[in-house]
Design goal:
The chain has 388 residues and is α+β, with helices and mostly antiparallel strands. Helices cover 32% and strands 25% of the residues.
C-alpha cells in the first residue's frame, strides 16, 4: 500500500485565495498514477474536521474562506487514517468577526405549537409538542422556503448530490430545519436528520463545523470549540460537552428534559430552525458535511457488504437501511444474496416502516425513470460511483 511520508504546503494563506498542498514523498519509489490517485486528504480548522476528500490524488487545493480568518488549518494526506506526523499547518491571518447583538429568542405557545421570534423579527414555526412512547419533545417536518434539491448542488458535488436524495426525502422532505427532540437521540436536526446521541459522529461532527461559521457567535455565543470539541462557556469556566466516548453533555445542553419541552430545549430548537432557514452558509455546510460523511460511509459499506461493482440503487438502499438503523448486517447480507437484491433490500422493515420504504421506492423509481439512476456502479478502488 502506498503511504505518504511527506507533504508540502504554505505556512500562511490569505482569505480569498486558494492554498495548494502536495504529497512529496512516499514509502515507495516512483509510485504509479493509480496509486497516487487513491490518496485521501483531511483538512482540520482549529482541530475540527472541515473536509475529507477521498481518492483526491497527490495534490489538494483548499479555498481559504472568511470563516478561517484568525485560525489554523491542518492539512493531512493519508491512505487509511490521517496523522499529524504527515501534515502541514497553515496560519490564516485576520480577525474573527465580533457579534455585538447576539440572538435573543422569545418563544410563544399555542396549544401544542411552538413559535418564536429572533431579535423582534417575524414569527416562525419551531415545532409541535409531541409524545413518543414515554418521551416528549418537539417535531418540525414542515419544509421551509429553501429545501434540498440535487440540481442546486450537482455542479459542486456531481453524482453524489443525487445519491443522497432518496434518503434526504425520506428523512426530511428536503427540509434543512427538520427537527426531532422527542426520542432517545435527544436532538436530531437537518435535512439528513443527524442525531446527537452518537459521539464523534453525525450531529456532533456537524455542530463542530457549524460553530466555525461566523454566524455561530450570533446564535450560540455560549458555545465554543475546545481542542476540536464542542464546549460551553459558563461562569465557572469553559466546559467541554462531548468527546470521543460520550456526547451526553451536549445532549443535556440541547434537551435537558426528555419528559417535557423545557425552555432551554425550545430556545435551542428555535435558534437552529431560524439559522437553517435564514443562512445559505448553514445549508451549504449541511450539504457538504452530509456528502463527505456519506462518501466515507459508502466506502465502508462497500467493504463490509462486498458492494464493489454493485448498482447505484442497491448501494442507496443499503446506505438508507444503515442510516435509519432498521436492520442488522446479517439481514442486509441475506437480501444482497437474493436473486433480486434491490427489491429484497426494499422489503426489509416493510411492515414497521411501510411509509418510509414506499417513499424510498418511489424516489428511486422516479430518479431511475428520469435517467439519473441505473447507469452507475460503485468502485471501491475509486471510492466513488463510476459510469457502467
Amino acid at each position: 500500500m502506498l503511504l505518504v511520508t511527506a507533504v508540502a504546503g504554505p505556512e500562511t494563506a490569505e482569505v480569498g485565495t486558494s492554498a495548494r498542498y502536495q504529497a512529496t514523498a512516499f514509502n515507495q519509489s516512483n509510485p504509479g498514477a493509480e496509486d497516487l490517485a487513491r490518496i485521501n486528504w483531511e483538512v482540520r480548522c482549529d482541530g475540527v474536521r472541515v473536509s475529507r476528500s477521498l481518492a483526491a490524488g497527490p495534490s489538494l487545493d483548499v479555498p481559504i474562506t472568511p470563516d478561517y480568518a484568525g485560525r489554523t488549518l491542518l492539512v493531512m494526506p493519508f491512505a487509511n487514517s490521517p496523522t499529524e506526523q504527515v501534515s502541514v499547518k497553515t496560519e490564516i491571518p485576520g480577525q474573527e468577526q465580533h457579534i455585538t447583538e447576539p440572538a435573543s429568542v422569545s418563544v410563544s405557545i399555542d396549544g401544542q405549537r411552538y413559535s418564536a421570534r429572533v431579535n423582534d423579527g417575524p414569527a416562525f414555526f419551531v415545532g409541535s409538542d409531541v409524545r413518543y412512547e414515554s418521551r416528549r419533545g418537539l417535531m418540525n417536518t414542515t419544509p421551509g422556503t429553501d429545501i434540498y434539491t440535487p440540481d442546486a448542488y450537482r455542479e459542486q458535488f456531481g453524482f453524489w448530490a443525487d445519491i443522497i436524495t432518496p434518503t434526504a426525502i425520506c428523512e426530511s422532505k428536503g427540509s434543512f430545519h427538520c427537527l426531532n427532540t422527542y426520542d432517545r437521540a435527544a436532538f436530531t436536526f437537518g435535512f439528513f436528520q443527524d442525531a446527537v446521541h452518537e459521539p464523534d459522529d453525525n450531529f456532533v461532527l456537524l455542530l463542530r463545523r457549524l460553530l466555525l461559521l461566523d454566524e455561530a457567535r450570533f446564535y450560540f455565543p455560549d458555545l465554543t470549540l475546545l481542542n476540536g470539541h464542542v464546549a460551553q462557556k459558563t461562569p465557572g469556566g469553559t466546559v467541554q460537552l462531548e468527546d470521543s466516548s460520550s456526547s451526553q453533555g451536549l445532549m443535556d445542553y440541547l434537551n435537558p428534559d426528555p419528559d417535557a419541552v423545557c425552555s432551554q430545549e425550545a430556545d435551542v430548537a428555535a435558534k437552529f430552525v431560524h439559522w437553517a432557514e435564514n443562512s445559505p452558509e448553514n445549508r451549504a455546510t449541511q450539504v457538504a458535511f452530509t456528502i463527505e460523511q456519506q462518501r466515507q460511509k459508502y466506502a465502508h459499506y462497500a467493504q463490509r457488504y462486498d458492494l464493489d461493482g454493485a448498482e447505484d440503487t442497491v448501494c442507496i438502499v443499503v446506505a438508507d437501511i444503515r442510516h435509519q438503523g432498521r436492520a442488522k448486517s446479517s439481514v442486509i447480507e441475506q437480501a444482497l444474496a437474493a436473486s433480486d437484491p434491490l427489491n429484497a433490500l426494499l422489503d426489509i422493515g416493510s411492515t414497521t416502516y411501510a411509509s418510509r420504504i414506499e417513499t424510498l421506492r418511489q424516489e428511486i423509481e422516479r430518479m431511475t425513470a428520469s435517467g439519473i439512476f441505473g447507469h452507475h456502479s460503485y468502485s471501491l478502488v475509486n471510492r466513488d460511483f463510476v459510469l457502467d
